[in-house]
Design goal:
By secondary structure, this protein is α+β, with helices and mostly antiparallel strands. The chain is about 35% helix and about 20% strand. It is built from 13 helices and 14 strands. The longest helix has 17 residues.
Length: about 375
């Protein structure tokens, strides 16, 4: 059973942080492949619009410098991506959405015996699929807003507002708040995109967005960071433009959630349930909505939390005494101390020939 730590576990957290820093001293020159590139729609948006200083990859690069790692940003869109991975000790992914956060990258890294930070194939795949994650929440007894799936054709309207969400991807990209029936078809088409994916239609629950970060520390204990409340100005909900904040308007205020003890225990309890029930590891963030009547609804699980200096995950860690670099150290420590596979797979041997598929695609 997982040992969870929180703000009341000050001494244990301090000991874990010291263990991380001691571990770092013997890891100078550690080879870290920082995986980042415009693969998913979400990452393409950030790559093209987010100021460099606000990007997670910028903050992660700084942390790796401070750690003393030998690191390089590897772009998974480059045909030499896989051969380059072989030159490093561990992969730290900053990819989000399909092909980065949904188990496919994790499966590749598993197969080539490359240690990597964060959850494995199954947990990543479940968390990235909003519909499947909803089903898991319900099976674990974690409350979540009512929902249904649209797969094409006429869409029913219950007369109450709904959130229309693409089933894959994050940062609210393609998400819409629909308040009347006339706006529903366009919102569904936008969420389905050209792929014609099924679309998640979720009951709109007004309230305060809350988020809980979880971080695995040495010894296998998991730190549950204090819930953070997000207050959004000039937007109906915490949408993609607000999260991107490309013009640095500061439309979002993040603060420690002021919760009664019973409500705090309820919310963090649901986060712990999701961690254990989904077999998460390394780091994760669970997002909730809290209504005016103190009803809690889980919204989603992120297995690759944003790691900019001012991200919710970094702010939550700072509230219990962890620096941004401490958090990165914890991620690397978990990846490199995880027991390796012992199945009889061959160690891949890479050659420097032009990949046939890449050549064909470029014609």
């Amino acid at each position: 059973m997982t040992l969870f730590l929180d703000t009341s576990s000050g001494k244990a957290v301090q000991q874990a942080v010291q263990a991380l820093r001691d571990w770092q001293e013997n890891r100078q020159g550690l080879g870290v492949a920082l995986v980042y590139g415009p693969v998913s729609l979400e990452d393409r948006l950030y790559h093209s619009k987010c100021p460099v200083e606000q990007r997670s990859v910028t903050a992660l690069s700084g942390a790796l410098e401070e750690i003393g790692a030998r690191w390089k940003v590897l772009d998974p869109c480059e045909p030499t991506f896989i051969p380059q991975l072989a030159g490093y000790d561990v992969a730290l992914s900053n990819l989000h959405g399909p092909f980065g956060e949904d188990g496919r990258l994790q499966g590749l890294l598993d197969y080539i015996r490359m240690p990597y930070c964060g959850s494995g194939v199954a947990a990543s795949a479940v968390a990235a699929d909003k519909v499947l994650c909803k089903r898991v929440m319900e099976s674990l007894g974690v409350p979540t807003p009512g929902w249904w799936v649209w797969s094409g054709g006429p869409a029913g309207w219950t007369g109450t507002p709904v959130m229309v969400k693409p089933p894959f991807g994050g940062s609210s990209v393609g998400m819409s708040l629909v308040r009347d029936q006339a706006a529903l078809p366009l919102a569904l088409a936008d969420a389905a995109r050209d792929e014609g994916d099924p679309v998640l239609v979720e009951d709109y629950v007004p309230g305060i967005p809350l988020t809980v970060g979880l971080l695995e520390l040495p010894g296998g204990a998991v730190l549950v960071c204090p819930p953070l409340a997000t207050e959004v100005a000039d937007a109906d909900f915490y949408d993609a433009d607000t999260k991107l904040d490309a013009d640095s308007r500061g439309a979002v205020t993040v603060r420690a959630a002021d919760l009664k003890p019973a409500l705090l225990a309820e919310i963090t309890g649901y986060a712990k349930t999701m961690w254990e029930g989904m077999a998460l590891r390394g780091s994760a963030r669970v997002d909730f909505i809290l209504t005016e009547t103190d009803q809690v609804h889980a919204l989603e699980v992120n297995t690759t939390p944003g790691m900019s200096r001012d991200s919710n995950f970094a702010v939550g860690g700072a509230m219990v005494g962890l620096t941004h670099t401490d958090i990165v150290l914890a991620m690397l420590h978990e990846a490199l101390t995880r027991p390796p596979y012992d199945v009889p797979l061959p160690t891949p041997a890479f050659v420097s020939s032009t990949p046939t598929r890449e050549a064909a695609v470029s014609l």
